[in-house]
Automatic annotation (TrEMBL):
The keyword Hydrolase applies. Keywords: GTP-binding, Hydrolase, Nucleotide-binding. GO terms for cellular component: membrane. Gene3D superfamilies: P-loop containing nucleotide triphosphate hydrolases (3.40.50.300). Pfam families: IIGP. The lineage of its organism: Eukaryota, Metazoa, Chordata, Craniata, Vertebrata. It comes from Callorhinchus milii (Ghost shark). SUPFAM superfamilies: P-loop containing nucleoside triphosphate hydrolases (SSF52540). It comes from the Eukaryota. This is IRG-type G domain-containing protein. Belongs to the TRAFAC class dynamin-like GTPase superfamily. IRG family. Residues 41-222 form the IRG-type G domain.
Amino acid sequence: MAASKFFHSDEIIGLQSDYKTGGLGAILSQIRNKCSHLDEVQVNIAVAGEAGSGKSTFINAIRNLQSNAQGAAPTGHCETTTEPTMYPYPHLPNVQLWDLPAVNSCGLGMKRYLELVKFESYEFFIIVAQARFRENDAELAKKVQEQGKLCFYVRCKIDNDLHSLAMEGAEFTEDEEMKTIRMDCVANFQYTNIKIPPIFLISNFKLNKYDFPELRTNLVRHVPMIRSQGFTLALPEITREIMGQKIRSMVNRIWLLAVLAGAVGAVPRPGLLFVTSIGLVVAGLVYLQREVGLDYGSLYRAISSFREEPMSIWKTVKKLCLLSKLSPVLLATAVGCTVAMKERGFPPVTISLLGAAVSSWFTVTVLTDAVRQHVGAAQRAVKSMFDKDSFYLL
């Protein structure tokens, strides 16, 4: 569960208790405090790419290990990684590098490959490539960005590219050729309509040349941001876990309302069925909004306590937190049943049975859907307060 990665079990229990008594406003400050103290949270960095791109060699290079050193990632001319393999990053506590199997060596489509490597379990991605820009490079970057996560694009073996040009007798300067290769990478990302990630041109064997020092510096510098981004992306699931007990309590009360609606609906008066169902549903919607914690007053005060410009975020939250609207289809069905029972002259027993069934069904269906919408609104409201989008401004 997402909450267990960022909160200890006693913290989760405390958050659940505070939410139960004070709604969303009561837990926002604790979530904000946790967001400011994520140093000990583990970061999983996936190193992905095609076979032969230099993924394993890159992992050894970034860890300052030779390929024959103890604990080094195995390398070779053939694909050596058959399943995700973890390697600690010695320069950064609680940071792990994961060597993923090559995208083009599994004989699987992209969707199945992502499932195989558990793509969603990594907070950050380093896409390693060589030579020309590949379709799989673009597809990987696209999938990472669809998850709202971050990545680096690392073009390895840049020394081989420059050496090949020299052997061909081409006239060039190293800086000019690197600029040309970099612009080619940018153009390919633009062509595929993918947000351009930070691009690094490196050699896995010349760690003090090209972009390798800059890559290492940027990776270290952005680990806190990666943690924060991972926390923000996990907030919807964390929010749902905190709300779990209260959601179950609300669902139980919905069934009690449904029983009450069914009992009143069993009275052989079609008009009473209609009025009772609507009345109970409206009362239930008001109850749900208050219980979920989307109370405008307390939520606005909580936002104002730690946002310099609460009005802009409040407008967004307010739109998310509107009461669920009654479904026209469900409402029409309830009205239709009411009219049908009256016009067709059903026997009192039939009217009672149908009235109980329709009233209970209408109440449960509308309010259960309202719980789902309200929980979703609460998740989006909390996430919107902590969203960040500054990573690509390097």
